[in-house]
Amino acid sequence: SSAASDVYKRQFPAQVCDKYEIYNLHPGLITKYPELKGKDPQEKAHKLKLPTSGAVLHRVTAELDSGPILDSFEIDIQKKSVIEIYSNIYNRSTDLWFTYLKRKFNGYEA
Prior knowledge:
Blueprint (H helix, E strand, L loop, with lengths): L1 E4 L8 H6 L1 E6 L14 H7 L4 E8 L9 E8 L5 H24 L5
Parallel strand pairs: 1-2
Antiparallel strand pairs: 2-3, 3-4
């Protein structure tokens, strides 16, 4: 079974993560900036004055935002407001989901 997680500030128990294939699209580039794990990554990126941010699609594990990374993207966030960062990441995130799901369900993803 597969499921997509859009659960705000919640973690799944290990036995649920082991039994089901759960995905999370995290709107912070945690591969490059681990400090963006958890709540409000765009606000953190803005406050930290990071030059870039992005999003990662990952498998959900019992540890917050720490599952295997399946895909990601990076965008320039310099001189952008938090609202602009949210908007840019949201728009690109939809494409990331569709691209991954297309690969997975067309047999290209293990």
